Amino acid sequence: MKNSQSVYEGTESEKLFRKLRGDNFVRRATREEDMNEHWDVLDSEFGRVDVKAAKRKFRGGPVDYTIWWELKTVKRPPNWRSKSGWGVPNEVDRLIAVRSEDAFYLVNPNDIIEILREKCTEYYRGDFGLHSRPDRGDLMTILPLSFIVENSVGRVSI
Fold first, then answer.
1. Residue 75's domain spans which residues?
2. Which DSSP string do the residues of 105-146 spell out, in sequence order?
3. Fewest 10 Å CB contacts: which of 54, 64, 86, 149?
4. Domain total for the chain?
5. DSSP SS3 for 34
6. Residues 29-84 pLDDT 10s
């Protein structure tokens, strides 16, 4: 499977987040909640949280904690409820837990969407640049860790 390493890393990050949250962990999202509402973990303190694993700037490269923020998801079947990416506010109140080397930083997509609309206007591979993959129909941007930290509403140390 082409994305097996990515799926494994995502699953491991979710497990780590749940372990770090201990008694605050309530339950995992169902498959439908994960795919349609974009969240992974229900936490008694933070509510719904979409956990994001450490990423790499280039596929196949080393993990360098590049923060890819999804604005539009990959192509979906016509009956799919949402085409918005996980980084865009939706009808569900949730936080995004972004993995860094030493912590998960929690960001509310409602707090940053207007800033992203202002800053992310050109296509290039770099901070606040728009990026789309051929034949995937997605749209994302790279966010600097400093932006995530400045706009975070919480931190879970690793």
1. 4-157
2. EEE-HHHHHHHHHHH--SB-SSBT-EE--TTT--EEEEE-HH
3. 64
4. 1
5. helix
6. 999 999 889 999 999 999 999 999 999 998 889 999 999 999 998 765 555 555 78
